[in-house]
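Final report, Chapter 2: Outcomes

The project's central promise was a pipeline that accepts a single protein chain and returns its three-dimensional structure in a standardized token representation, suitable for archiving and comparison. That pipeline is now operational. To close this chapter, we reproduce one record exactly as it appears in the project archive, with the input sequence first and the structure output second.
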Amino acid sequence: MKLSRILCNPLLSGVASGPALVTSQPICFWGGLDPKTGTITERDHELKGQNVAGTVFVFPTGKGSSTTSAILLESVRCGTAPAAIVNLKTEPILVIGAIIAEKLYDRVIPIVDTPERDPIKVIKSGEWVEVNASETQGWIQLRK
């Protein structure tokens, strides 16, 4: 059964789907994500030990580091990047990493933020999610 769409701001154009990986905690990509494996390594993070590869990674925002873009880029090179990213508020440095990944590796990671409803409260890890950042009004949609 299809649930209603959650409209959001498209930041990096593309369409992707995959199982959701959801956290209510911000994450630092530098020291918090192993780009070789896609495993979350951030100490004391609720998702520590889980893998972002191929997921629709839903998290509120990053915890700043200028190397966020490098870690995302390396995860794309290693084939361990998320399929899409959904944030409440996206750090520009994350988008830069995804833009460079598209240019260097021809891999698109759609990114959306500022959703009309909090997806962290609506989507559970493991549920199948579609992300469309290719339209003027982006959206995410859960499939059950």
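Archive annotation: The mean pLDDT is 95.
This record, like all others produced under the grant, will remain available to the consortium after the project formally closes.
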